[in-house]
Amino acid sequence: MSSTSLSRRARLSTYDLAVAGVFGALAIVLAFTPLGLIPVPNPSEAATSLHLPAIIAGILSGPIVGALVGLVLAVSTWYLYSTAFITFAGGNLLVALAAAFLPRLLIGVTAYYAFRPLRRWPALAAAVAALVGTLTNTFGVLGTLIFLGTLPVALLAPVFSMNVPIEVALALVVTIPTVAVLRAMGRGRVAALRD
Amino acid sequence: MNLLLPGMYFAADTALHRLDPRVKMGAAMALMVLPFAARHPIGHLLAVGLVGAAAVLSRAPWRALLGTLRTVFWLSFFMFFFYFFTTPGRPLLALGGVRVTVEGLLAGALQVYRLCLLAVVAALLTYTTSPLQLTHGLEAMLSPLARIGLPVRELGMVLTVALRFVPTFFEEIETISRAQRARGVDLSSGPPWQRIRNTVPVFVPLFLSAIRRAEELAVAMEARGFRSQPHRTRLYQLTLTRADAIAALIVLACGTIGVLIR
């Protein structure tokens, strides 16, 4: 794309920043509207789709852009749920910030690196990236709280067993067709497909 | 489609609105930690007093402020009963095999008080600080991390672009959802697998539209001379005033006393 060539010397091109901003906007919209939460009958009442923009942005423009979208997602969920994070972290602000930000930062990064080795088989690569990105989000947030010792493991078993399959299924059915369309746009324009 | 906002910014010219976003964000963080770190009732009184004073200064509508407590109702309910039934201590009541204790009641009440205070602090910050100011404040607070190579300036730009496109995508999601509903896609009923499959005709066009918009935006930005380089200047600079220093000192002093007093 011609616009990228204008600022190739920079670490991130203008196009990369635009992708991060636009997909960040999608992450915010999904965090603030009912569409981001798919109503399903389980203890938490909803499966989240907030991680999807970070997965797609990571595949489209690389790990740094994926991390930036994850950061926007983390900021918007912190805006909404900081109360819950701080309470679950027992008032430890650093633990709450780590649980809210680190896993979200890594969604796009892990999705990109899961996709890269399998790029010759794009449908399989998309499925693995969707799986890895989703698990980074779900296990990352709750796992950080457990690992840092502020949440008991037993409390989370129902959430893991019911939310994880639904969120993984959602990521799979959305990521695979989206990657198919990205391929049609041309391999050179998708970071994870470039040789 | 409804926005699920717990506390939306409202434009006004109060002392709290005029404070620097960095000071407000720092103070909010301190006030969120204080109810957990305080060990003496004076510490809790200081936290409640500061939040109460900020609420009065903000001139936020009381009904809206109390309405934010609804967002933590279920979490408070869950936390109260979790601590109520699991804290050991002097027995208060025994029903069958379940024993509740005085300590459990106090621990549950303490959790509810903390949650309510956190919700009001978060709401006060967002009531009195516009999303763009929050973005500038966040970028300024994270700026030391730029020295170790983290893309902090890029993050500021990305957040600004994201905020600009939120209304656009909000509208776009509505348009795509309506178009798919008109074609017979049911987004809100049926078994879980069916619901998940039905989101595909909304998400895939949404992502493709996002890519198209990103391409157009990149061309428009570069046509206007934007370059992704480290030394950009700002139209609006954040400057600390005397009022900011006084507010920061008050919160710092109350926070220190609240934590140290045992």
Structural overview:
The complex is a heterodimer of chains A (195) and B (262). Chain A has one domain: Arp2/3 complex 21 kDa subunit ARPC3 (Orthogonal Bundle). Chain A is 71% helix and 3% strand. Residues 1-10 of chain A have low confidence and may be disordered. In chain A, strands 1-2 form a two-stranded antiparallel ribbon. Chain A has seven helices and two strands; from the N terminus they run ααββααααα. With 195 residues, chain A is mainly α. Chain B has a two-stranded antiparallel sheet with strand order 1-2. The relative contact order of chain B is 0.15. Helix content of chain B is 68%, strand content 3%. Chain B is mainly alpha-helical and 262 residues long. Chain B has two domains: 15-129 and 239-260, no CATH class; 145-223, no CATH class. Chain B has helices at 15-18, 21-37, 41-58, 62-67, 73-86, 102-128, 131-142, 152-182, 192-198, 200-223, 242-260, and strands at residues 91-95, 98-101. In chain B, helix 2 (21-37) packs antiparallel against helix 3, helix 3 packs antiparallel against helix 11 and helix 7 runs antiparallel to helix 8 (152-182). Chain B is built from eleven helices and two strands. Classes of the chains: A mainly alpha (195), B mainly alpha (262).
- Describe the oligomeric state of these chains in a short phrase: heterodimer
Principal-axis shape of chain A? globular
CATH topology of chain A: Arp2/3 complex 21 kDa subunit ARPC3
Most residues in contact, chain pair and counts:
A-B, 67 and 70 residues
